[in-house]
Amino acid sequence: MMETWYYVDSGYCTPAVNMALDEALMNWHRDKKIPPVLRFYGWDPAGLSVGYFQKVEGRIDLDGIRRHGFELVRRQTGGRAVLHDKELTYSVIVSEDHPEMPPSVKDAYLVISKGLLEGFRNLGIHADFAVPEGKLGTTGSAVCFEEPSWYELIVDGKKAAGSAQTRKRGIILQHGSIPIDVDDEKLFDMFIYKNDRVKERAKRAFSDKAVAINTILDGEVSFEDTKTAFEQGFKKGLGINFEPFNLTSDQWDEVYKIAETRYNNDDWNYAR
Question: PANTHER family from the xrefs (predicted)?
């Protein structure tokens, strides 16, 4: 018999609420109130999420974020900054002691990324797992999509989905970005460069490193179509069934409290 996970379609939320809901789902799963979870969501307004240990001062252009009406939020997971705009974002929340979850982060990436692989296939996109050679992170860039990590998804050598994982008190959270469209101008307004020449060079190089769904397909795939493709992809890739889970008003109150005390807090978002 196939295992059943909860499926949460939380629609579009603010950056702070998006991060707070991931944290709340981790807490409820740890307390055995809910089974493992797959969640899909969007961002309104668009947000720039920075990694747990990432430095903001001197790296992130806060004026650029405000100018575009975006919001900055710090993730629980590590890695570099991601602009969440025209994308589908996913979260997987599952216990470390789940029989299908390997003990190493890298191997767990492979298991979860099988759902992403099948999702791309459902859209008619031939994606592969990234297996980087040599040491990652040599560019020193603050931009997440500059380089693929182990078992992230690439198409024709370009990064098509970016993920990050953390493990806290026995629970794995892996969440990631599946770009549907990318606006290079807005993306590079989020970061500080030594001068305009360096910024333009980075912008030109980016098109050789990352790609979005609608660029691959040369057409228009909607948020809803993408969500359906990846829901079915996770079912096949992980060999599980889903039961829709709708939060109660009390549960939403708990999420909003986490958002207000942590993810809307400047000490959390900027002081690292």
Answer: OCTANOYL-[GCVH]:PROTEIN N-OCTANOYLTRANSFERASE, OCTANOYLTRANSFERASE LIPM-RELATED
Confidence at residue 1, expressed as pLDDT on a 0 to 100 scale: 74
pLDDT at 272: 66
Q: Which domains does the chain have, with CATH numbers?
A: 3-265 (3.30.930.10)
Q: In this predicted model, what pLDDT tens digit does every residue of 152-184 receive, in sequence order?
A: 899 998 999 999 999 999 999 999 999 999 988
What region does 24 belong to: left with phi over 0, alpha with psi -120 to 50, or beta?
alpha
pTM of the model: 0.91
- pLDDT-derived band at 150 (thresholds 50, 70, 90) equals low
Per residue in 51-67, pLDDT (tens digit) is 999 999 999 999 999 99
| Active-site residue flag, 13 | no
